[in-house]
């Protein structure tokens, strides 16, 4: 019984370790193939589309919404009042967008592959981070340069805590949140000037450098 218990326990521990490090769970560089090809490099980079146009709940809710078909067809269908395609429509008959058109017609959702997937016991609120000066780039990397999106950061607990303990260098003015190319040198002459500005904007009445919560209940609820 002891040997069986040790064997079973070892197998369980091995399975949990394998699951915890599986690409779909946690793996920097994980880049699944999506059912509809979408280039963030084109849309967010070259066309300068704001992240919030597609992920329209990112600054008001815990989850960053996956854009609905309507968001895509606003540009790629462009139907006028008479049902005809307007002249400003972008690639309205592209084969690459067929699954979007099918989904729009049938009501069945496009089965997107999730890339950034935290463990079920982890609570993460997008709006809190966005409204406290943390840009999308800090967790997702230079999305505006990605032809195919991949997981750029490990998203581990130690990685999160490192930022929570010293977030100042990762903060930016509220109007630059979705400007992924922004650096403090763009608006401030010295780093101290930048730190003081972030302290004033996000630190409130706190004295000393701004710090985020490291209490366990912040993320584990």
Describe the 3D structure:
There is one protein chain. This protein is mostly helical and about 220 residues long. The protein has helices at about 1-20, 40-45, 50-55, 70-75, 100-105, 125-130, 135-140, 155-165, 190-200, 215-220. Helix 4 (about 70-75) crosses helix 5. The longest helix is centred in the first third of the chain and has 19 residues, at about 1-20. The radius of gyration is 22 Å and the shape is flat. The mean pLDDT is about 90.
The major sheet is characterized as:
none
Global outline: flat
Mean pLDDT: 89
Helix/strand-derived class? mainly alpha
Task: Summarize the helix and strand pattern as letters.
Answer: HHHHHHHHHH
Number of helices: 10
Q: Segments where pLDDT lies below 50 for 5+ residues?
A: none
Relative helix content: 25-40%
Q: Any idea what the radius of gyration is?
A: 22 Å
Strand content: under 5%
Distance between the termini: 37 Å
Q: Count all strands and give the number.
A: 0
Describe this protein with a few key phrases:
single chain; 221 residues; mainly alpha; 37% helix; 0% strand; flat
Task: Put the structure in a nutshell.
With 221 residues, the protein is mainly α.
Give the helices and strands, then pairings.
Layout: H1 2-20, H2 40-46, H3 51-54, H4 69-76, H5 98-106, H6 126-131, H7 137-140, H8 157-165, H9 191-202, H10 216-219
């Amino acid at each position: 019984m002891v040997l069986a218990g040790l064997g079973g326990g070892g197998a369980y521990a091995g399975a949990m370790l394998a699951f915890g490090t599986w690409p779909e769970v946690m793996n920097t560089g994980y880049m699944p193939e999506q059912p509809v090809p979408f280039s963030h490099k084109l849309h967010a980079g070259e066309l300068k589309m704001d992240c919030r146009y597609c992920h329209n709940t990112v600054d008001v809710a815990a989850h960053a919404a996956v854009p609905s078909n309507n968001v895509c067809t606003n540009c790629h269908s462009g139907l006028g009042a008479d049902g005809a395609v307007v002249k400003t429509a972008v690639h309205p008959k592209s084969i690459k967008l067929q699954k979007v058109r099918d989904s729009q017609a049938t009501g069945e959702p496009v089965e997107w592959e999730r890339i950034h997937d935290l463990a079920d016991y982890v609570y993460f609120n997008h709006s809190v981070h966005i409204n406290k000066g943390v840009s999308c780039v800090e967790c997702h990397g230079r999305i505006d340069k990605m032809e195919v999106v991949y997981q750029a950061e490990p998203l581990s607990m130690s990685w999160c805590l490192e930022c929570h303990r010293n977030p100042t260098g990762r903060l930016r003015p509220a109007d630059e949140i979705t400007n992924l190319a922004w650096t403090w040198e763009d608006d401030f002459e010295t780093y101290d000037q930048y730190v003081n500005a972030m302290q004033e904007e996000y630190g409130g009445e706190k004295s000393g450098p701004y710090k985020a919560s490291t209490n366990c209940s912040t993320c584990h609820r």
